[in-house]
Amino acid sequence: MSPRTRVLVMLARALAVFVILTAAACAHAHPSWVARGTHTTVHHGQRVVYGVGVVRGVRDLAKARTVAENRARLQIVERLAPRHRRPRFIAATLTNVRITDHWFGRDGAVFALAEYRPQG
C-alpha cells in the first residue's frame, strides 16, 4: 500500500469514528424545548405560549402520546388562566392550540409540545 493510500485510509477511519461518536452523543440529547418547559415568548411581535406535557410509565404508545398532548394543553391553560377562573371543560374552550412536536426519552417518557397563538 502506498503512503498516500495509507493516509487516506487513516483519514477515512478517523472520520468514521468521529461520525459514530457524534451520532451517539446526539442520540442521548433532548430537544431544547424539553429542558425549557412551559414558557411564554414573543415571536414576530406576537405572544406565543408553549406548553410541555410529559408522561412516564405508559406502555401503549398511542395512549402515552395522547396523555402527553393533553398535559401540554393543560400547561397552556394553567399559564393563561388563574386556577379559580379555569374552565371545567378545557378541551371545549381551547382554540388556536396545536401540537407541534413530540420526543421520546430513553427511559420511556413521552413529551409533547403544544403551541398557542392568540388571535387578534
Task: Write up what this structure looks like.
The chain is α+β, with helices and mostly antiparallel strands and 120 residues long. The protein has 2 domains: 1-30; 31-116, Endonuclease I-creI (Roll). Helix content is 46%, strand content 25%. It has 4 helices and 4 strands; from the N terminus they run ααββααββ. The protein has helices at 3-28, 32-36, 61-80, 90-93, and strands at residues 39-43, 46-55, 97-104, 110-116. The chain has a 4-stranded antiparallel β-sheet. It is elongated. The N and C termini lie far apart (71 Å).
Which tags fit this structure?
four-stranded antiparallel beta sheet, single chain, 120 residues, alpha+beta, Endonuclease I-creI, 4 helices
Q: What does the overall shape look like?
A: elongated
User: What is the CATH H-level superfamily of the largest domain?
Assistant: Acetamidase/Formamidase-like domains
| Unreliable sequence segments | none
Enumerate the strands of the largest sheet in spatial order, edge to edge or round the barrel: 1-2-4-3
What is the count of helical runs?
4
Structural class, by secondary structure, is alpha+beta
Look at the structure and give the mean pLDDT: 83
| Helix percentage range | 40-55%
Task: Note the run of SSEs as H and E.
Answer: HHEEHHEE
CATH architecture of the largest domain: Roll
Supply the number of structural domains.
2
Quantity of strands, as a count: 4
End-to-end distance, in Å?
Answer: 71 Å
- Major beta-sheet overview: 4 strands, antiparallel
Radius of gyration: 22 Å
What is the top-level CATH class of the largest domain? Alpha Beta
